[in-house]
Specification:
Keywords: Signal. With 275 residues, this protein is of the alpha/beta class. 45% of the residues lie in helices and 22% in strands. The protein has 11 helices and 12 strands.
Length: 275
């Protein structure tokens, strides 16, 4: 009986402690947000340059989950992220139409390039990406595909379709199911062709004899968008933090930080948020 009374006396203390924990957890959540983004933006080094400036301006920490764009969009659909930073405009607009994101705003662009062995055994070099893909399919060297539903993979599949192949399954076509960095490493170690965003390529240190072979085609344009996840679908998301990030990264301050990111004097991304 005495034991029961003793526990009863402690109950208010335990409740108070639990309340403190919950409040602390809520404050931590309010001071941070989860961003699902692409391996290309992460591996290009952009976020290491961009996010400290965002934290300095807002006090918010950002946890980046770097996956393929398709997986990032799935995270938004499930409510596993607060904001998305991706590059597959058709899929992004569909997410907004479905109500899982409140809006989609353009934030920056760069371009895709086709890299491959400098000797270019398939003779793809030039500015025509469709012709290059046709030659790569017929040539002796392998073609490495990310095969991961990323924005780069989606772009690659569009080029194959334009080249007359809905499902590229030729003998030298290799899907790695991996991020941009590992795909480049595979191409470098095997002397293969691979489509990459220019930002990751410029930050890639293990090039071996790879070189940029195809660039400058207008179809290689690579647009990035930012999307806050809809709190009416997922009330637990940090909607206020996501709004702060979207407003900042599309503001003159955020756009200036993006423009200032360079490697070897070369700008990796070009801001183009709507004024």
């Amino acid at each position: 009986m005495n034991k029961f009374k003793k526990n009863t006396r402690l109950a208010p203390v335990r409740i108070a402690l639990a309340a403190i924990v919950l409040v602390a957890s809520g404050l931590a959540s309010a001071q941070s947000l989860v961003m699902a983004s692409t391996t290309s933006t992460e591996q290009s080094g952009l976020f290491a340059h961009l996010l400290p400036a965002f934290k300095a301006a807002t006090g918010l920490d950002v946890k980046v989950v770097a996956v393929g764009t398709g997986q990032a969009i799935d995270m938004g659909r499930r409510g596993d992220a607060d904001v998305l930073f991706v590059h597959d405009q058709a899929a992004e607009e569909k997410l907004v139409q479905e109500g899982f994101a409140t809006k989609r705003l353009p934030v920056m662009y760069n371009d895709f390039v086709l890299v491959g062995p400098a000797a270019d055994p398939a003779r793809v070099r030039g500015k025509d990406i469709v012709s290059a893909f046709q030659k790569a399919a017929a040539g002796p060297a392998a073609f490495i595909s990310r095969g991961d539903r990323s924005g780069t993979h989606a772009a690659e599949l569009r080029y194959w379709k334009l080249a007359g192949m809905d499902a590229p399954k030729f003998a030298n076509y290799k899907e790695c199911g991996c991020g941009m960095g590992p795909a480049l490493n595979m191409a470098a170690s095997t002397g293969a062709y691979v489509l990459t965003d220019r930002g990751t390529w410029l930050n890639f240190r293990n090039r071996a004899d790879l070189a940029v072979l195809v660039e400058g085609d207008k179809q290689l344009f690579n647009q990035y968008g930012v999307l806050p996840v809809n709190p009416t679908k997922h009330p637990h998301v940090n909607a206020a933090g996501a709004t702060k990030f979207v407003e900042w990264v599309t503001s003159p301050a955020g756009q200036g930080v993006i423009a200032s990111y360079k490697i070897g004097g070369e700008q990796l991304f070009f801001p183009n948020a709507n004024p």
